[in-house]
Amino acid sequence: MLFPVVLVVLQLVATKVNSQGTVFDIRKYGAAAGGDVSEALMKAWKDAIASPTPCQILIPKGDWTLSQAHMAGPNKSPINLVVEGNLKAYPDPAKLPVKTYEWVTINYVNFLTISGGGVFDGQGKQAWAANDCNKNKNCAKLPINLSLNFINNSVIQDVTTKDSKNFHVNCISSGNVTFKNFKVSAPEESINTDGIHIARSDKITVIDTVIETGDDCISMGDELTNVLIKNVKCGPGHGISIGSLGKNPQEKDIKGITVQNCTFTNTQNGIRIKTWPSAPAVLTISDLHFLDLTMVNTSSPIIFDQQYCPWNLCSLDKPSNIQISDVEIANIKGTSATSEVLTFSCSSSKPCQGVKVGAVDLTYVGSEPEPTTTRCENFKPVLSGTQKPALCDAAAKPKPKAQPK
């Protein structure tokens, strides 16, 4: 378990980046209520990254319109971006000045804090209505609320991302980053609005966080190590997902993922691993720990889907090349909205290996009088404790499940 190490590192980082130092208030750079504060924020950022001592950039309380901000380091000393007010994007995505598909971007920074209790409001309702990516491969790309790339030793805490037009947060190619007391807020009908997407990073922590959105609460891409997700409330949304993986031959291994003491309420999934069949990537997903999880009316509490093929946009001719191994599942409880409460559909060419399943207590609460079942394909777990329902019951013949997004 990496919990003690992560929490000690978090304390050290927070101590360093929370030093107040010089305050760069965007109002001193020309920001005014009712106007676009992008230019003022960029001027404040320029002075902040040049500061030889710890500093703050202050966005005070109130409503502030921000067309776009691309902020980059390197910085000379720790920076605290204090967002006390409500930053609002233009509702029309066509008004994004630079078509980079990111609204607020921070790149190449060390010892960054984002805090203050404010809101990054993407005002995404207009964009969701026009989103046709489920049927159009050439659909328009929409901006991410908060894109964090190549950042290290940083903390994002006590702020909200709301109604993003696309993913709420990207955290890519980064190290030792913690999201704490963070909130994602969007309605269930918001499309492609993953709460936090992480990939190609090491030591990413999400703790004491609430995520309400229309897609994955947390999604994980490739080349990811040492992730801790703890005390997260997910719902509505599609759950916490690893993948999808397999389509890019350059994808790299995932290792060391812990999801503990999380609650999934009215979500499409709880924990999901999804890999593409007939895809070129060869990699492993290993050292996984799914512990002490509560499901409340969750449609698929745990699902390993190595035949992931949304909207039938792929071939099922060949099995997935991705190996899932060394998995611990224990103390999973609550209610399922579907009768098939556990699904382990592993690859026929690389069956799941070294999976240990402890106590499970899941009850089907749907309206149809169906027996509660599990599905096991190319999957032979080591069992301990009691599983309710019985896992991999040979007598059960569940129907194939429809492919979710």
Automatic annotation (TrEMBL):
<keyword id="KW-0732">Signal</keyword>
<keyword id="KW-0378">Hydrolase</keyword>
<dbReference type="Pfam" id="PF00295">
    <property type="entry name" value="Glyco_hydro_28"/>
</dbReference>
<keyword id="KW-0326">Glycosidase</keyword>
<dbReference type="InterPro" id="IPR012334">
    <property type="entry name" value="Pectin_lyas_fold"/>
</dbReference>
<protein>
    <recommendedName>
        <fullName>Polygalacturonase</fullName>
    </recommendedName>
</protein>
<feature type="active site">
    <location>
        <position position="238"/>
    </location>
</feature>
<dbReference type="InterPro" id="IPR000743">
    <property type="entry name" value="Glyco_hydro_28"/>
</dbReference>
<keyword id="KW-0964">Secreted</keyword>
<dbReference type="GO" id="GO:0071555">
    <property type="term" value="P:cell wall organization"/>
</dbReference>
<comment type="similarity">
    <text>Belongs to the glycosyl hydrolase 28 family.</text>
</comment>
<feature type="signal peptide">
    <location>
        <begin position="1"/>
        <end position="19"/>
    </location>
</feature>
<dbReference type="InterPro" id="IPR011050">
    <property type="entry name" value="Pectin_lyase_fold/virulence"/>
</dbReference>
<keyword id="KW-0961">Cell wall biogenesis/degradation</keyword>
<dbReference type="InterPro" id="IPR006626">
    <property type="entry name" value="PbH1"/>
</dbReference>
<keyword id="KW-0134">Cell wall</keyword>
<dbReference type="GO" id="GO:0005975">
    <property type="term" value="P:carbohydrate metabolic process"/>
</dbReference>
<dbReference type="GO" id="GO:0004650">
    <property type="term" value="F:polygalacturonase activity"/>
</dbReference>
